[in-house]
Protein 1
Amino acid sequence: MVRSTERAEGIGRRRTGAVCTATDAVSAVKDGSVVAISGFNMANTPEYLILELHRQYMRTGHPNSLFVVTDALPATPGRGLDIVAKDLSQRGDGRFIRGITVPFFGFSPWLQRLVEDDVVEAYSWPMGVAAYWFREVASGRPGVISKIGIDTAIDPRKEGGKVNGLAAARNTCTVKRIMIGGQVYLLYEAPKPDVALVRASTADRRANLTMEDEVIRGTVLSMAQATKAHPRPGIVIAQVRNLDRGEAHPRAVEVPGPLVDMVVVSPKKYHWQVGSKAYDPAFGAVGKPMQMRGQDTMDPVEMVIARRVLVGLAEAAKKKGAPYIVNLGIGIPALVSTLAVAEGLEDRIVTVVESGQWGGVALPGVDFGAAVGPFALSTMPDMFSNFEGGIIDAASLGFLQVGRNGDVNPSTLPGRIYGPGGFPVIAGGSPRIYFAGAFTARGAKITIARGKLKVVKDGEVKKFVRSVYKNFFSGSQALKFGKEVAYVTERAVFRLTPTGLELTELAPGADIERDVLGAMEYKPAVSKELREMDHALFNSGPMRLAKRLGVEAVPW
């Protein structure tokens, strides 16, 4: 294979695609276009194209009135769409982007500001629904039909996915309740893309796109197909790092060249694998998972919570007697994969991430979505089928608020617009859910020593509240479909029952009245079989779970 970061001989204008400058490519985007942009944080994000599209607008005033549709969030703080949002927000400019639908705003503080100030209309659907939507539109269907979102903030009886006042007024994207076979479903609809800005590693002489250096596969193919679908076939612009004079192996091709109109070679600085690093061959590489973050470097409170989740998963895996498939959300749940490797359970407990990773060690923070040492990479629509269809065995997700009836708000507060992310699809489809988080927030001081926990100073913010600010997980719906739900913290564990939360475990050293019941806005039931959390959770060093539970690695 011959690669070049320059325009390669023989890769000129042809029937399938043209190698051109970023300026020439974005000049093809017309005013009023619906623009699909790939990207999960910085993974698969065509940052060069995003920034050049904005520069073109600043130079000429065109294109303007764009409506952006995404499958996740093509940004991290100070990168990608966040840079554009900063400029638009500071100038109060609503002409360049008139609207946007984004599943997760959390890693773009300026996009949050832009939305909160009502400069652009904003919608937020669950990530899996957004990924499916491209595939459905590509197939000529009107949108996505799903049970995900019923009785949550996404339900049209509440907010219907509209994030701000402009969205409520304009109603460009809609969520409707429909009946099929006597059951309620939600229909998600949005305007079809006219343009797709996508990213890959290499384009060959036919403009076939391969992703050998990308950490995820994302929704790139479905975005290209949705853009090319009738009745308005649009244009697909691909950002790559390399050009290949030859032809890629057919099985390596992610997007066939006939679906690609233009190819732009990006400078390295605009083509990072993840938010913190331009390139690391271990990201997405097949092989034995590495321990990226050892137990000795974890926050002690977070480690207790992640350990308790791991114990529950190990016990369930032992009962199943086969590899146990578990989705891990961002934050504390992502630490479970590190602990599973440390305990030698990575073959028994197979962790997956919504971006498409199978196995390995999930990376935290702005690198979330990537993993070291995965053994397989699915596309995002395919991975979310595993969630919504209940194909996975369990999920562990974070929480910001838990209501008295088990409803969960994962991330949103007044002035803090995060959106649902992948949370509703994962929580809505998984048969067993471990919500994991600290008991209180802001300023808590907790010590852990000699197998016991002590709350020296509690957090200022209670997280177990009478009614959550935004509901993205319905406790009543979970009970209706027979899900097993636990809420794991450093000082207590609860389970969901038909009458609400029930306290089942208390940390050694914690006072039930002062540290648990007194730190909640409501009184949960207390189990008659209330027991202490395992002292091993609070000790340093490996728990040796495999030996304690009699769990051995499963041969594949």
Protein 2
Amino acid sequence: MAVTGAEVLAGGGTRFSVWAPRARSVALRLGGEPDRPMRREGDEWSLTVEGAGAGARYWFVLDQARALPDPRSRCQPEGVHGPSQVVDPRAFRFRHEAPRRPLAEWVIEEIHVGAFTMEGTFAAAAARLPAVAEIGINAVEIMPVAAFPGARNWGYDGVSLYAPCAAYGTPDELRALVDEAHRLGLAVILDVVYNHLGPEGNYTNEFAPYFTCARKTPWGDAIAYERPEVRSWLVDNARHWRDEYRVDALRVDAVHAIEDPSPRQFLSELVEGARPLVMIAESEPNESRVVDEWGFDAVWSDDFHHALHASLTGERTGYYRSFGPLPRLARAIEVGWVRGAEAEHARTLSAERLVVCAQNHDQIGNRALGERLAHLAGLPSARLAAVATLAAAPSVPLLFMGEEFAAGAPFLYFTSHGDPALARAVTEGRRREFAEHGFAWPERVPDPQDEATFRRSKLDWQEAERAPHDGMRALYRELLRLRRELPTLGARAKALCRARVDGSLLRVARGPVQVVMNFDEHAAGAIEPGWRCLLLSEERQFGGTVDRPGNVLPPRAGGLYVPGR
């Protein structure tokens, strides 16, 4: 495919091109100048304009009617309904090389650019990255930044897939964020959505058959993955983030929602076309084909989260219904998958194939009130969750922003749709959904459209320096130090991991290291003599109330033990 959107030429000028097979005519509207007819070349239209360069704003005019933004626009400075802007990606000078670290050694923090700082910009996020790297995190996963309607959104309603959201900053400011991460030794993962586009501001189907009514999704007509031009548009998007922004990995949202009738699956072509990027999938069913057939390097594994959350909170509704007993958590730690016909297959998966967490944007934000684990179960349980995620589980760990200091802010669902009917449907639908699931006060569900809902979700970084939050941060720092210094605690040592339940204790052997976790709020568990305690999550330095034990594990406390000498 030759289509590139707007390409600044080395010799000067810009070549504009667009796929529009159904159009009788296409014109370029450049700034306030008269429309310029474009030349047809098969199903594509193109025009080179001398003197047009970076910063020029433009539209494509179909059949002398509507002026529309470019489906491959690199920048939408006035939002998804406004004109596209020419960008020269070669103008930015990257100064730092990406860290060379295998996936098995990654410790990931997931961030939402708008809520990660009070300013909510790429530049402000870059300024906070040293605080992330300082405790030992070595990768950041950025929730979707592709342009979406309005200024507030989780990002999964993106419609201009090549253009970073203007509310966060310019394309070069996103590049600077990636460059700063690399300076600090952080790998950068970008969350991308290829299973649907948001309804508002999605003009792609006016250009060409990007969608098909032959298949339906929860969001409407399905993307036409069987069309080579559509596949190219999406695979090129992955290359766009790789080549023009130098991200190190992509996390592909909800691949189970991608239905492709083609003999060769789109997802296989995506993974191959995006190399050498690390490719991570989110897939709700536990399916081996994600890694075995489609070639993804890793997949998010929800079973660990569900089992840990149910054990710590006592929740037993919805998908937590079958996850309460400790043996379920033991299996999630030792094997990886608990649910599904292929759960046993997870034994054959190396640990770096599974990404696990105690909290993420979905599991917090899809609650009615957006509560974090510390809000639901208390700080001792949050500390125990840190031990489970970073020391017990032989997988790639992921934290959610602020988890490392038990942030007080919730993470709520927020939007800023400009379409009044859509905005009303989102507000009413969310309250109706929680009412149907038994939430007693649906009127208390925060309105996603209210800007205050977004503001409440922003991290207060000053909190990280105050008790008890500083103690939680110290715990994460120490756990990550031990993870680096004790190789058996990493994601390469799944074969050495054995988990067993002993009353209220969950004992996980990681080679010569023992991780012992007590899930009873009142009972104390006995520890065999001859073990030396390296860390106890309820130590005073971490915000707890006890000193390191001898052979008694205090209630609700996680610990790491190694044999005495």
Protein 3
Amino acid sequence: MLMILKKRTEVAERLKLTLKITALVTVLCAGVFVLTWLSLPFPAERLEKWTVSPVISDVNDRPLLSIVGSDDQWRHPVGLDQMSPWLKKATIAVEDERFYRHFGVDPLAVVRAAGQNVAAGRILSGASTLNMQICRMMDDRPRTPKAKIIESFRALQLNRLMSKDDILELYLNTAPYGGNLRGVEAASLRYFARGAKDLSLGQAALIAGLPQSPSRYRPDRYLEAAMKRRHIVLRRMLEAGMITELQLKHANAHRIEIHPGPRIQRASHAAWFALKRRPTGGRTTIDLEIQKQVERLAQEHLRRLPKDTELAVVVIDIAESAIVAMIGSGDSADPADGLVNGALAKRSPGSTLKPFIYAAAFETSRLNGESTVYDIPISRGGWAPLNFDRAFTGQLAAAEALQRSLNVPAVLIAEAVGLARCCGILEAVGIPLPGDAQRRGGLALAVGAIEANLLDLTNAYATLGRDGVRRYLRIFPDETAAQVRALAPEVCRAISEILSCRQRRPRGMETVPAQDVRWFMWKTGTSSGRRDAWAVGHNRRYAIGVWVGRFRGTGRPAYVGAEAAEPLLAELFDLSNLRTYIDPPPTAPIRVRRPLPPPRELNQRLRITEPAAGETFICLNGSAIVHTQTNRAEGITWFLNGKLTRIDAIKNLTLPAGQYELRCVDQAGQSSSVNFAVIGAEVADAP
């Protein structure tokens, strides 16, 4: 009996000692756990390591462009409210059925997994909760017992840091779903060409089953395996009471078809321009409806132009200072030229700068539309500017000179006002110039001897339409549109009225009744060698610019602004979404306080500049055409071989073979003469 009592006492003592040791170990473990918890807080910043695939959308959130993130993964995070309810239920059923009941680690799942693994003699289940899977993806550790302990610890911390719905949303936006797809939105778009919120029960179950083995169940490659996995997901949902037998039957009966969604790319040049400005993407000011209409008209216009012609178009909302449409080339899918954004290419703008040269003179009260300007032969530093038709008009009103885009008056105005002021106006309205613009362009700057791109040029015309206020051009609505006063309102209105369709009829609208032509102003331009054809204008609501040419810079006879670009511009201003319905109010004339001086050529001695003295002309079909020209434009009387003769408006003489003396006399009695010869073709060919 004593022995029994003694043994019982020893057992009791050992039990007490065991309990004490257990309690001590428990306290120590708890202490270590608390210290670790406090000293190693959850690295919340690692939850932001997953990059987002940038998406560029239009003003109404319609996608224009989507590209992979910096880690080459497709990831489009969306909120739980933007996911199908079936997707959330299916994921919980197959991945973590007690998700809303545990604290980040599921003890029951751990016990069950341990039993399964021991019975099988190998690892069949890891008992990972959604929390643990997020932590594993966050640190990307190999699957080892040590890693499992760390994941469990972090999972408990994550459960304290975030709500259950936030954890579920994070998982659904970061889990792998095959290839380089991360998150349910990217998977839904790739496999079913629809967003995650539009998934059916069967589609949601298929996607929910992928993260267990994304490469093995990837439906676009292994659809049969994916369907077997889907059946498992649906059975789990049934067992969890999430769906009924009838819903299971309907889901199984629904045929799954994989329709990979095409990579969206609309308004590609505008979208890439926006992405370059903001690499994270976002909602832009591009209006897809306007963009489509502009593209349609541009393609129709291209068919009327020579083969291999390229064009670019920019449309700017004047009030919002926002790009609403942009075309960079005729075919964005072209592997070579399609990559070039012609709206950003710097080219010679031709005569499209002239309105701002005149504005510089208007601004300083030295010129208005009724002022007299001169279109006469001049020479500056060996350069003798010519008009497009190579003829001169003489004395005329400034408004007519600008409408006819005469070169000499623009050069003389720039000379009188000063290049520095002209360059200052160009930069003020939004056309950036190189530091050596005055030296490099000289007076030829007035006729386009400096480079500009279509986007800046169109924005400059938007400044005219905004009564002289230049604003920072936006492609994202949340960008700040800083503004500065560039020109006086009355100057902009005067220039716009001179160049409006009320003063001349736009090309392509000659037969349209005047009352049906909506108000807009415009100016065309043609660069030297006919390399670039331009038409830019505004209707006080939108500013539109059109460029036509070839990216390699070779010219063509067809590339004339009035012929190749103006008709498209007129069609664009006639679009219902872009036209204006009210003419601007009439403008008062600019008061001229210090008129521009007449050109110095008016005070030079009269001289015949064509034909040259002693020049010989060859008869073709019995006569030769001799072009005549003096350094004066008006008040000239002509004599041929001593006889008074009439020289027509284009100053040509048609003459048979012979020797000639041509003499001219002005009203002051000054005269000039030259001798020339016209010979027959047989004489010219004689040895």
Protein 4
Amino acid sequence: MLQCRVSSATPTTRPANRLSREKSPYLLQHQFNPVDWHAWNEEAFRRAHNEGKPVFLSIGYSTCHWCHVMERESFEDERVAALLNRHFISIKVDREERPDVDRIYMAAVQGMTGQGGWPLNLFLTPDLRPFYGGTYFPPEQRQGRISFLSLLEQIQNAWQNRRPEVEEAARDLHSQLAMHLALEPVAGLALTPAITRRAAEVLKSANDPRHGGFGRAPKFPQPSQPALLLRVACQDRDPQGLRMVWHQCERMAAGGIHDQLGGGFARYSVDEEWLVPHFEKMLYDNAQLLELYLDAWLTSDDERHAQTARGVVTYLRRDMTHPLGGFFSAEDADSEGKEGKFYCWTTPELATLLTPEEYNVARHYFGFTPEGNFVDHSDPDPLPHQNVLRVANPTVTAADAPLLQSAREKLLAAREKRVRPHLDDKILASWNGLMLGALARASAALAEPAWRAAAERNAAFLRQHLWHTATGTLRHRWRQGECDDVQLLDAYAFPLHGLIQLYEATLEPAHLDFALALAEAMRERFYDPEHGGFWQNHGAPELILRVKEDYDGAEPAGNSVAVSGLLRLAALTGRADYLAMAEKTLHLFADQLQRQPQKLPHMLLALDFWLHEPARLVIAGDPAAPATRALIQAAHQVYYPHKIVCGTAGPVAPEAKAQTLINGQPTAWLCTGTACQPPVTDPADLRALLASHAFGA
């Protein structure tokens, strides 16, 4: 699969095209192309109909390496532009702003070619039905791939001379897509723990015992997969499954996919060792990995996992936070037109920056060599002898530890003076919701008040800049003070889940109030009361299909996160209607969960929560009081995913409101159904109580 990165330097001597009016950083990267680009809008659709031309649809994102390559090779080529401008209506789409558009046309390309990725390039009829597509097309024929210019000529010839045949093929493909993407419940299927166990066995069978993770190169973290295996392994007391997850976390943290100086993780590794990444960093990856490393720390008591989690938050707060509190989307792999240039080192550079003693310790620890370990094979003139830093030899003596720390600090300071990769500074409600929840949970588990404040500022940003109270509408994208108007399930489901986690980490009722408002808006716009499940989009008549997302890939599906959020919200508030929506959605996906459980690991985490009556941990006391906060932190310092944490004020269930202080002190009550354990007021006692009840211990 080709995965992409951000834009090349674009000549500004050309006049700007229509994309100059857009806010998407990806679209703006193409504003000086000679191609007569349109955004995805009514103007483009109307032109295609009026002029009877096929649509060339190109989908990517601003930190996509191969998108940059194709832009340099083809979209800046005057010959390509002349052919596109004469015979096609060309549309650019940012797949991060419009995942609903991307989902439909990605399914089409996968159906046609058996693979997908970005850049995603398709040819559509004027009514937007696809008839041909692929990913990256080179400027000249190579390795069995047709040149892009030749492809354009062939498509134009087919449209001109065999248009009825092309349109018939498009109608057939549309019918196949509709059948492939349709979801209807299958009667009589039971949802049992056997489904999650089967998924765990599938993952274990794909485990790489040497390097960790599942499968071979390229390696994607896909955190919901190891999170599911960890959950099942804890329930079944399976030490092998636990070791697999801990090993994956350890090897990823030691690899080049992990930024050894600045914290955070790159998108994926091109090799099976987690050594050489595609260097782009995505907010959604780091949000999910932050949660995974918290889980690994809580289940293993290995402080290295906590340190990795701390590094993710350090990176987030340093490089990915808007002054108003929103979180940026991504950083590119490329700087100065070279992939990895910001992150990689030659040995002469290192020898110049470090003392001989620091150099020797760093060489032992990071394993750099004069030859280097990274070559950008997509670049005809790659930089030579580049080293991706990784932990090659983790053992460091007490005497050498200060030298290693000094070397790290010097290298990070020197790197900060380099030309940084492009920052995709749009703020997406969906991805912010993922990071909001992870950061809130981390703030409690690792007892970091500054992180809690950052999470609360992020929630305030979502409410102030993306939420429209009068209409109950949450926009998806904010950039430079402007919002889009697209309505996406992910933009509601992800912040809903994040706000619930923020509430559980703070017990501030306002966060639960906002979560309830989002749940109501999500129900109104996206829920299918007939069959269950949630539509991906609301109010986009130009889409050729209406889709319920059913795949937890790099990002979890909106349906999976919606179910998880609604189940927790139902447990917190006692709302039976939210529980019913979640249950109906689980039953809609029951067939897929049984046949292909590895496709929906995040939904399986939600199913696992549903299968176990959640324990209710009620903390009575002022959430702002230090003693109450100490209990809240203790509540999050034990791996117990089948519990909810709530206070006694606001829209919580009546059972929670009934709990009281003991002797005037903040008090924690652990209850299941109507039965409660003896109350505790000491954080250490609370941790012990939770540990004794987690997974029936």
